[in-house]
């Protein structure tokens, strides 16, 4: 009887694969931008689906590694590790570059017990933030959660529709200067779309 063929070891999950995971979650809102990014990366739709499948398998494996360990294994050593104080919580901010968005970094906030409690895209240190003054400035992929919250304070967090999604409610002027009540949706911390609820009296 012929021996069973040896099982091929799975190829490493790479930084490119991780970018495909980010894009897969954004495809629901901005399929055109995702398609352009996919062509820029030189990958197929099947490649993106496979990367997402493997990512989900890693997340739900019985012996899934901790988030920080997982990101280090995929993305390598972080570009920077910075102490961060958020309210009463002391934590560390770990940043990794994301080649698809050179002005952004993937940030993981890690509590003292080693648990990652936030994972999203932020503006890279030293990179200029976009000028956000009216609704016309809020274009998909142009800004992050923090940037919108600062530009149109006070903003109120909204519950996201999935673990990687966030929302903000705020008011902002339209092109004619009329203030509008808005709700913005973000995926992995990056703006996807803005809905206008009505005019501010």
TrEMBL record:
Protein name: Uncharacterized protein
